[in-house]
Structures
1.
Amino acid sequence: MLEAGRWLYVAGANGVGKTSLLRMVCGLAPVESGQILWNDQPIQSQRDAYRQDLCYLGHLNALQESMTVNENLVFTAALGGVAPEPGQIDSVLAHFGVGGRGEQLVRHLSQGQKRRVALSRLALSQARLWVLDEPFVAMDEAGVRMLADLIAAHLAKGGLTVLTSHQQVPIGNMPPQMLELRA
Amino acid sequence: MKKLGLASVMLALLRREFAVALRQKGEVLTPLVFFVVIASLFPLGVGPESALLLRMAPGVLWVSALLAAMLSLQRLFATDYIDGSLEQMALSGTPLGLLVVAKALSHFLLSGLPLVLMAPVLGLQFGLDGRALGILMLTLLLGTPTLSLIGSIGAALTLGVRGAGVLLSLLILPLYIPVLIFGAGAVEADAAGLGFGGHLSLLAALLVLSAFFAPLATTTALRISLE
Amino acid sequence: MHWNSVSEFFAMGGYAFYVWGSFGLTAVVVVGEVLLLRAQRKTVLRNLRNELLAESNPT
Amino acid sequence: MNTRVIHWFKFASPQNFYVLAGRMWPWFATLAALLTAVGLWISFFVAPTDAQQGEGYRIIFVHVPTSQMSMFIYLVMAAWAGFGLAFNTRLSGMMASALAPTGALFAFLSLVTGALWGKPMWGAWWVWDARLTSELILLFLYLGFLALQASIDDPRRADKACAVLALVGVVNVPIIYFSVKWWNTLHQGASVSLTRSPTMASTMLWGMLIMVVACWMYAITIALLRVRNIILERERHTEWVKHALE
């Protein structure tokens, strides 16, 4: 049970099924036992309505390599049913430290830059529930702090976040709900 | 931020597919060249006798078109599956069925339509006359979207599977047989004075049927592949 | 009974190859499938026992 | 109502079905053996010689049962597959994959016996007749199913993917059949009716029917045996399998 404005921290050793749990939360993987409810309804019965409220960020960046950063972000925003305002993408990219790279092909970016572009999807998303799989991995200290601030702002607006992480990262001054997975 | 209608989302996907195709021209051109090469091999195999070639032409061109479609279908979802975009599509608020239709449409526009335009050139090699060429193009125009739609099922089923390319052909080619029969049969029926209207309406019926059922099956298959 | 002799029966009115070929092949396939399933069952059981043994005596 | 549902789903658990299948298969095997014996007796000693085809027609006693079994098994397989997709029962996928190899074998036998019949009757091993062609395509569909099953490692995913394929196939089979038929009449090819005219002696008909039922019993026996193997293989990490072994 996760309330609006709270975040769930899924902890556990490697290979214990954190990613699988997140994929179940998204409705990608079937739930073996138990149920996942959203607004008191099982997510299987809501389908697209639930997905409209959802933004998932997995291990994969979901960026098409032979398109530019801008094209990629416009497309993922379109999948969420919105078109960004002119200039919005530029400011988000600048905020994530990859400013001015909008017209570059994704394949010309470094791994770290790709990850930042992928994370900037969050800022463009209208979803209330963020599901993040290891978002802090391979980020420098500044990046981690900025992402934590972004999540904190999301929570402050009444959003929800479920995330996994190796390291403990404070998100604003909001204590997490903990979920420790054991084998 | 501006809200987008479902049609605009489909359009955005189409635009994306075109942008990718434009930067990876080889992926679009290779199946086309393959089509030309396969069709040109037949006269070398059976000899240059014009009466025989004329009779074979519709069948040969149609079989080549099927094989060329196979070649491009392998990549319909594969890159999106590997880089995670497919996951995002499956998790978006847009119904996945619509995205699948847009994908199939882009496959038709990028690989089916060029075949339609290329066919008359190859038809001339086989000595088809203007009327036969017209009918052939018409059947290809009605038939290749069906190939894209049915093929998308196979492409979705074989995602991330060992030997996906060969497997895809084994799964999908038998399902293409009705399209092949009515497509290639139209020219022949017209030559025999039977008219080709029946063939065309049957091809259209297949198209409607596959437009209705194939996205359903593809969506199910994609969700299974993503589990 | 319309066969006058055993050899007539086996000759099948000149169609011996086709008739006995069909029935023979079917018989071979059927017996083969049954034998294959038995072999498969044996392998499955053997693998299971080995696994079980390996689990019960961890060395 | 509710209790009834529970009752039926009880057998849908692999563990219970394993036991049930183990109890049932000897009965079906016995029936299959008895019916085959009777069917063969009628085929060779009771059914009279055909006026036109001589003794060669006796091939229908294997050809007709195998070809209709191959089609029917595909339908049953698709039904299991659809059931599995709709209700997410594990057993359904196992049943579908237990049936597929037998169906493919029947399709193969039907083609070979058809060729062996065709050679003396039409003078050719193979004729592009609507039925033979459809049977060949059916074999391709089976092979596709088996190949897909074999190339996906996770059995649950394999079951589901194969279920989609089987359902797509079953929608297509009638379309393929009619298109091949249309193609066949257009080309004025050799269209040979494989089932004989109504003059067929009633003993022939009886022999064929008994052979058909024998094939049914055989297919059920084999499916039960194979599903037992599949269940053991897939459930090997469960407690009950370990118990069953001891």
Note: Strands of chain A lie at 7-12, 37-38, 41-42, 54-57, 82-83, 129-133, 160-164, 177-181.
2.
Amino acid sequence: MPGKDVKIVGFLCNWCAYAGADMAGMARMEQPAGMRIIRVPCSGRVDPLLVLKAFQEGADGVLVSGCHPGDCHYGSGNYLARRRLELLGRMLPALGIEPERFHYTWVSASEGARWAEIVNTFTEAIKDVDEGS
Amino acid sequence: MLGVFICQCGTNISATVDTGAVAAAAAGMRGVAHAESIQYTCSDPGQAAIGAAVREKRLDRIVIAACSPRMHEATFRRALERAGLNPYMMEMVNIREQCSWIHADTGEATMKAVDLVRKAVARIRAHVPLQGGKTAAVRRALVIGGGIAGIRAALDISAAGIPVTLVEKSPSIGGNMARLDKTFPTLDCSSCILTPLMVEIKQHDHIELMTNAEVDDVRGLVGDFQIDIRRRSTCVDEEKCTGCMICQEKCPAPAPDDFNAGLCQSKAISVAFPQAVPLVASLRKQYCRRFNGGKCRLCQKLCPAGAVDYGQEDEVVSRSFGAVVAATGYGHYDWTGSYPTFGKGLYPDVITSAQYERLLSASGPTGGLIRRPSDGAEPRQVAFVSCVGSRDESAGRPQCCSVGCMYTAKQAILTKEHIPDSQSYIFYIDMRAGGKNYEEFVRRAQTRYGAIFIRGRVGRIFPRRGKLVVMGTDTLAGDQVEIEADLVVLAAGLTAAPGAGELARKLNIACDETGFMAEEHPKLRPVEAAAAGVFLAGACQGPKDIPATVAQAGAAAAKVIGLLSRGELETSPMVSAVNPSRCAGCFKCRDVCPFGAIDKDRLADGLVTARVIESLCRGCGICNAACPPGAISLNGYTDKQLLAELVEVLR
Amino acid sequence: MRFIPEENITALLLRLSENATVWAPQVVRDTVNTVLFAPWREGAEIETGLYSALPVKGLVLPATERLFSFRYHRAGEREKIEIEVDELRERAAVFAARACDAKALVTLDALFLDGSGRSYNDQHYRARRGALTVITLACTSCDSACFCSSFEDGAAATAGSDLIFYPVSGGFLAEAVSATGRELAALDLFQESNLEKPPLAETAKVELARLGQRLLDKFDDIDFWRRTAEGCLSCGYCSYACPACHCFNIFDEMESDRAGGRYRCWDACMFYAYTLESSGHNPRPEAAHRYRNRLAHKFSYFPLNRGEFLCTGCGRCIRGCPAGRDVRDVIKALGAG
Amino acid sequence: MEELIPIIKKALEQVDVVLGWAQSPAAGVAVPAFFHTPAEADAAVFDSTCAHNLAVYLPRLADKKVGIVAKGCDARSIAQLIAEGAVKRSGVFVIGASCPGMIDVKKAWRCFGFGKQVCDAAGKVAMEGKTVAREEILLWKCRGCRDPEPVICDVTVGEASSEAPAPPAEPAGIRKRFAAMTVAERRQFWQDQFSRCIRCYACREACPLCVCRDVCTIQAHEPGWAGAAVDSPQSWMAQLIRVNHLAGRCTGCEECERACPVGIPLMLLLEEQNDVVEELFGYRAGGEAKPPFLTFDIKNDTWDEER
Amino acid sequence: MSTVPRKGIKATKPLVPEPATIIDVIVETPSIRSFRLVFDDPGIMKEFSFAPGQIGLMGIPGVGESTFAISSPPSRRDYIQFSVMKTGFVTSAIHELKAGDAVALRAPLGCGFPVDNWKGKNILIAGGGIGMAPLRSLLLYILDHRHQFGDISVFYGARTPADLCFVGDRAHWEEREDIAFIATIDSGQPGWDGRTGVLPRVMEAGRPPAENTVAVICGPPVMIGYALAALARLGFAEGQIFTTLERKMKCGIGLCGRCNVGSKYVCTDGPVFSLADLGNEI
């Protein structure tokens, strides 16, 4: 089973990404078991410090996902989020964290398949980093 | 003291997650006084078990590991309330959609479930009781779309004494149903049953009708949406126009006839159709000579009522509404791009069923005589092709249009009734006739009306000797079939109405992957959209027939009435709050707040701190993430709660 | 007096390393002039010219130490707490401490090892202090921040040291102060010598006479303290750098759902949070209040309670202050003795 | 720079206090000084050791009218504080000082010991008769200085330096070493660096943009972003909190690094962040605009999702 | 030294608490609860003794400790009571505790009231709000040794009737004829038929004689300020007035530094001080 040892924290917005993950479940799309989802109301709620704290506490990867740009339930949350998170992602190499371990992406409530695919790909990418390839 | 309940959800969860083991693990977690696995936690006995445990073990915090909180969070909050606890002292753990359903290995899924329960146990220690407030709700509803769904919803809402504004994009209400000839399975005349309702709308005291109008901007939230409605300029004063149609008659500029699905021409200034409500003309500037450099002013000169006003401009009307019903209906799939072997729309006698509907209709361009477009001849052999742009993966259209089988059967019957010596051939994939009396209706088309049903897809349509050859496979006989037809009618699939996506964005609601507006829950909240106070009626939520549309419109109306009849709404307590003793007064929160919900507060000692205007706060938590000293936090999603979760899942 | 040739120093440190970690001042790699006491390994260069940024007090009162660990365990329906105190630990030796640092250890000893009832005998401090050997390198030169000569003994202070090295030509004269020091000096790495002790550094002096009273006289002149503290950034460096400051905080940390530890860590009286009460009330809300309390503690309260200043004139708070503050200016501003 | 003293005296006619520098006899360099009266202002100096960014005191004096002697880089901090609303423009009187480039006094102290006079009476770097190559001893930020003239200023003092700003230096020493490290090596590098951190918060207190101060979340009980333990991971997290809160706000004044008593190269983090912010948003803190994480035009957010 | 010396805490492990268990929780007011607890080690419980006015650091390992006055009397051998007002982080966590929950305790700490020096004197007790907690311990001690003291008058004030603690005690104290007990609330409220008016004024109106009397006051700073002024007008000298102070504490043993008032540490020199001890530093 893939992803057994990879611990990933996912911060998912309630309206889109979390619902998308639910959708993947309703469609019984098998996924690696290392993902631990923390529900937040909006990707704009995700303080970059939560991501850094996750790494500090030993996460192998952190994924943030919210509504597609333009679709934010609150209008602008994901616009703010992507600014903060893009900066964070670019800072990671200087902080000594492989940038592959962090990913932010947009998943709508109907994109169950996309969510499953993201979890799979991201888990694999982290495993590649862990193996040093 | 904590109680943990692990739902088996029948076998939905317990098939993959060892719920007993999860309960046993939970029982060992610090502070957990009670842990049990329940077959259906959401059921009455399940909720009763929670209540009993609360009483017996004096529990004050409850963790429920079950399905997605999007499904039953509200259910369990009510259960807590009944058990005498604050409803927010509950945390749900999603071990179904995000665990049992996506993992195969029991050991792994169980381990993950235990992890998730531990996370919730840690989180719930940081929960505090929350109390929602109340806010007045505006007693007025907006219905967007004037088809049968919007009409029904508007009438039903206004019947409860709640004023309604009905907004229709086109010049007349009536929508797709007004274009239909007869309706299955009863073969009622569509106009005969619809027109009285349209008139009722126009005459209703509590209904404000705005045609040629669209939603421009939406602000606010449930109970108090502030919505700007743009009324497009039609160059005709609706108050003055009598619908005499002299302008239309004399107008020299041709324009497509939208009502007749492009089968004939109309004029730049025209009344949408003879039964239109309101019965007024409107001018389409893009076709008008005057607006394209010409000097023509005929309509203005001829109008006996003096209703034509070329200087009329768009008008934006702002209104407050307590609730919104979206009833934007459906659009027709443009098949020409995806079916090159069907002639890409170049053969005039390959038409869509929507066009055929107009040929059948007495109010149509042919006055109810079936005449094929190419030469006006009466067809003898009519081939119907189902599922064009439906149930077709190769066209990227896997979904069923849900009405194609039925209306094709109807059209075959009507063809026979119009032309008794005609022969209809129906290419189908499966006949889907699930409604009341539907199967009998299809059977009648076959037996009494002699329609020949061929199970199989059509591969090619091409002209041969003045006829159209329809080549397909008869999958039952296993043969290639070739039908020579005079007219081919394609049952093109249904799409979301044009512009529905944009409207959904304005309303802050989601669309599903086929572009239709998404309901909150497919079974339990079928008319609620993702944004509170927005409801869905009819085909905007997915293709459906008239009975289903009318039923859903009624349901949406009932929801609106339920919401607005009390006059006030409970507000969510999950809003931000400022701890003034930690506020640095930097107001970054105010800079990022999308709702202007942050104000300045001057404390007794002169310090200036932020304050949340709770009635404006919608609980996004963006301020929380932007506040450097952590003074502002979102109730229910505080840093403390998220950190507790985070630390626990990584232990 | 005993003498150790320069070339034997490495051998001495190696000998000490056999059963203790040897801490010696070293320049931190890639820094301009940061000197810290760090574990010495053979070949490491010892920096005795520049002053270390931090004193040796961390070896007896670490920046963070675990006081005990606790565990919640289930006893029937109830949770019970189990507490366990870790026992120490390895021996340590410090080489090339300065007299001002060593002397401050005696001040700390009085606070943490006093069994008289006036104070408590702190087991954690006791364990570390008992396992520490202090070899002091007497200062024959100083810089302009030093003001140890203001206090009794000045650079010649021997208190707190086990063994004191005086730099002389070719090596160091070694003066044993304690039994441990005498044992060390008896090692074969040392020899007898009749060289004279070199003259020690004579540092700046500040007027300490009646300082405690002078300070109390100004105590209520809050404007004076506001002026005095106005450049102060309210950071904690001076407290952490002070060999005699010993204030600490106590906090808990969970390591799992049921187990965690209680820790003690340095705290600084210049922090706003130091006296902030949970109600939001803060008895020392302004930097001026905190600055006043800091100086009063050092030069008034502590002498009143303990008969000595809580300062040895090491000058670190002057040398390292990010805002260039100089405590001697304040002492001067308090007026003549 | 003798003309400074009369300017401060004049400024004192309209402000409560002027922030400047005075010579510290003990340290041999200039240290921050608060001039309340014209008599006090006689002690004012301005030379190559005035590295401190006095803007740090402005938010603490928000209730007063304050004059401040500011170098070009300091003025950026003042502008940033004004843009963020932490300081009122009308509350500050900026005396822009043309800056010759500041030297790293720690380098002088390492060579000559603490307390030796670093600048001569004319303000030139000179120690015990030796003159030192200016470029050798300049602060990193002064190499390739982008703001020799103050962006915000009410009166200027001194003539613009005839000398061109020293050219940007090639990364040397720790910068060079850091640039060449792998990600894993950097992880270890920071762990080593922060094992020295003593949590004195001099970095925070010396930072003009760390405006939370007393209520800083790093020291707050809750929610506990960084534990109170003085150990490398916790101290590292504590610093990351500061760095994160300075995103799009840091003007690069290097005060945190200068203030750090244990020599942690904090600017490696902040320089990187400032560079990324400038690259992503074309934004450099210290102008009139708010940081790109607070206000931006959402409707016209020209963000390329594919980048 | 006018206060009694401390006893009890292990001299070598002063920072290490002893596990204890809550046996009862009394909801006194919306923001104050009293917790009764016993040490898990019966030996320690048996040995435990203290003087009224002494304090303890009660904590929840994993959350932290906070300082509270012991509000039960020394004669109570079966439990130790602390009355806790919810003000912040630790006290909020303590308020969540129920009977059976585990805590950790360091007690007794500090110096209690010098009751031995007060023998034969009249005692005036004035407590405001949560400040009544140490005074309850003192009052119960005095009632246990009633014959040793002269006249006893007690004033207890709070903002509203709902803010008055110790309901059961109050009824008992009001009934007793050998003490004068007056409860007062700041301003009149329906359903309250007792005294109204802020405590210092009510106390002053009672005109207690200063002669051979010790005044013990405890309460919020504002109340203390007015009460001191009132006592001064009534002729009380500084040496006759005692109070207990509250400061943020971490160690409780005079080392961690933060609780000093001038040169005195509240944790070891106090929390009981006579006004003469404090001088102008209060």
Note: Chain B is about 25% helix and 25% strand.
3.
Amino acid sequence: MTDPLVIFDVALALAIVALAVAALSVRDLFAMIVLFVVFGLLSALAWVRLSAPDVALAEAAIGAGVTGALLLKTLHHLRYVSGTLGQQAAYGVTPLTPVPIGVTLANAIFCGLITLGLAVAYLGAPAAGPGFDALVAEAMPRSGVDHPVTGVLLNFRAYDTLMEVVVLLAAVVAVWQIERGVSDAPAPVLGEVWQGFARLALPATVVVGTYLLWVGAEAPGGAFQGGAVLAAVGLLLLLTRAYVPQPTHRGIARGAFVLGTGVFALVALLVASGGRVAFEYPLEHAKTLILLIEGMVTISIAVTLAALFHGREPVAQTKGGRDDT
Amino acid sequence: MTPDLIYGLCGVAVFGIGLVGALCAQDRLRRVLALKLCSVGAGFLLVVGAWRTPPATPDPVPHALVITGIVVMVSATAVALALIRRLQSLEADDER
Amino acid sequence: MSVELSPMILAIFLPLFGAIAAFIAPRAAWSIGLATLAATTGAVIWLARDVWAKGAVMLPLGGWGAPLGIDLRADGLSVAMLALTSAVGFLVSIAALDSLKDAARQRQYFWPLWLLLLTGMNGVYLSTDLFNLYVMIEVIALAAVGLTVLNGTRDALRAGLEYMYASILGALLFLMGVGFVYLHLGRLDFAGLAGAEVSGSLIAAMALMFVGLALKIALFPLHFWLPAAHANATAPASALLSGLVVKAALYIVLRLAQYMPFPSETLLTLVGLMGAGAVIWGGIQALRAERLKLLVAWSTVAQIGLIFVAFARAGEMGLTESWKAAALLILAHGVAKAAMFLAAGRIKDEIGHDVIRDLDRAPIRPTLAQFTFALAAISLIGLPPSLGFIGKWSLMEGAMAAGYWHWVAVTMAGTLLSVAYFSRVLTAFLRFDRVRAPVGEHQGWALADAAPLTLALAAIGLGLMAAPLLSFIEIGYPFGVAQ
Amino acid sequence: MNTFLSLTLIALLLSILAGLIRVFRGPAPAERMLAAQLFGTAAVAILLVLSQLMQMPALLDVAMVFALLAAVTLVGFVVLASRGVR
Amino acid sequence: MLEIAAAAFIALGTLFFVAGTVGLLRFPDIFCRLHALTKADGLGLALIAVGVALLAGTAGAVFRIALVWFFVAVASATCGHLIARYARHGVRHD
């Protein structure tokens, strides 16, 4: 008899594929986003099954949660603010250039062939190399942390991680450049039940986010997951308009955006002395330095993700003038 | 039938579906979503690749790479969506 | 305790810190930006001296060493690309001071985005790790899209969105390729690729990475996003995008080509054919373009095609030499195209439009900008003694030696097409008979012409230094001596 | 015991999949939100069972994060599916 | 003995989940569905949590399971309420 867990795996995999198809083909854009969030949720479950809880955390928090919120925000903007979807609120289709059905079909067949080729390549892939696990296991005692994924992210491949934070910084700079404005829309009325819940949920979220950051040194968790959970607080505050970004807050916000990148890069640069190279933390301070970096990066990620959700530089927009500062 | 095989094929399929969407989707929002699907597919492949040794200890490096990939993707998505919003506002102004 | 700096680290970190500073202090952004570029150029010169003296240099970040850690490596080719980036970047920055002087908001965001872009490009040229390359091209992609839509017009936003889709998709194809490499090899550094035995997954990986990069390079037939994006961006951004950004992905292709497990004749022919398609199609579209910047953008498509033709010019056996022809063309195009876009931007600024048909009716004649444009065109067409000429010459020389006359024919056709489309512009500069208003002969001269003119002169003058340039590129032998 | 837990997982997954029908059919956003709430709770339940089955206590943290995010996402759905906010 | 009790709890919890889903699909309007779902899956999760806690053994795990359950219970009540408000008259803004 086959292990029922295998049946679960197959069902989960099929569900994920089906959700991907459904999200792309469902007509209603709101349904598309719900399906996408569920898709992210189930992918996270699949990654749990593959013994990758760190990835599952990141995917659930960032891949499904924050991305879903971003999509939703954009859909809301298209439907209610710019009104480009206003007339067809339920079935909004924003046209790019109209594509003839033949081209679509040809593309689909083309992609199908590529996918088939990839599947064949995947099935025929013998894992020739040994992977990194032996190297990581051997180097872990010198990394300053106990959790391998954190060790890889913050020490062995810290350069990649620094650049990843730079990507986040580039994104927020680009988003601020693209859009600006201060909103004067009214706050949503969510009722007293919500008020009571918010009093519990917001501090709880802060605690969980901090806990994830702290536990990252020895268990699944870390700066990115913690930052994403903290960003959820920001999302709630922005959604309920408990906090409305103002032009005067821009200085602090800029500081928070660059905090993680700046501290990370400075530490990486400054440890290069006494025969060490950049990113080579002295062993006795490694844990402290990594925690410092992680803490600053967490703050940056939380603020940046919230700012990406808000999606514009809080500047008063002058009529007609493209170039106010 | 081991989990890595199942989810590996699932990842390739999701990548392919995303690819179809990225090339064929008419809607600006849906294209962004299709790209996100592609990135999840690529993530699957890396996480599955981590299963070289018995399941108890997967290789942590690909896990770290996928986390990086997820953060990179959310940044790209945010920029694309900001472009879409700005563009739609301008186009809405045109029609008025 | 003193911090030990390495020029490689500086080349990446200086622009990063510059970007941070420029973002925090928008009012001082321009001075921070110029200072950063000067400092980065200094770091690159320092690195070039190191490489000249010691050959290829390595730096294992974190002290771990590949494959666990990430190594930085600089050889002749990387330094040449770094030098191209910082030199062209510096001159474009100076030009940007003037062309963005009336646009406070654009000026405020130009500097952080451009410095982040520089961080990403320098990172690409020094990287030896596939996943690191993926992150770097994403840094480049986001900063480049930000620059594309800097002026905030509808056309620029639309083009920027298309560019964004193409860019992300390209990066994701690359990432999928990285996944297959990991699946097969269990490591991601270049050294691991070198000794790999060929398998289905490795072929899939290379194909995915190549297509992804081709999308970012805008290699025909994946060029659809480029003309609109480069034509609608503001002039200094266009110069950076066309002159430098495209080169980063091209460089990765050049780098990875030596690890392609099957540099077979068929594959190279295919690459050459795509290049040939780009040369012809880009040329035809440039002939039909109505606006100056669009013409220049289409000529980028054609020139990129030519680089791939150069790469494939002598087939498998000639690859040890062909990459040098491609590298020369990359450098030549980087300098000349930046000059040309800046000049086109100047012309547009002075005249007020860039409709080619009406260029000769303008009452103002921005003589110096037109002269710059013509000089850049000389290099792009490939007239002696420009660097473009040397590049094309070595292309055709190799192809003839190997008996591949079809590539010679393609190159000739491309050259003729470029003569034809640039003549459309040049004649518009030269004919006065249709001018209806009195010509302000000496109007439209400005200090702003200095930077593009310098670039255009460099594009011509570097041709005289081709020999030392070539021997420098060979330091570290990217394609191996014994291959 | 493990077989039993696996069967439980399958049942929970099936209830998620069945809920998807509601997302498809709608008709109103409220129905879709409700289904989303089911998915959140069911995913938390799956994670609890998996933490036992795979002997990974760390999954309890993952479950906590899922629970938090499900709530935040739902608030997002409710607020952003209506007019007014910018 | 403990295992049997745990299994019983988990089985019952799963049953509630399935029942809630059936309610979501079969009931005629949003309020009936809301009513069926929030109660059923809240209870289902509680039962499963008890079952898993019985199996888990360590105090830390039990504590965390309790925390998860508590949060989900409160959150799902609140969210049910919010959805109901939304379904009745949308969300007003002022």
Note: The CA atoms of residues 9 and 148 of chain A lie 26 Å apart.
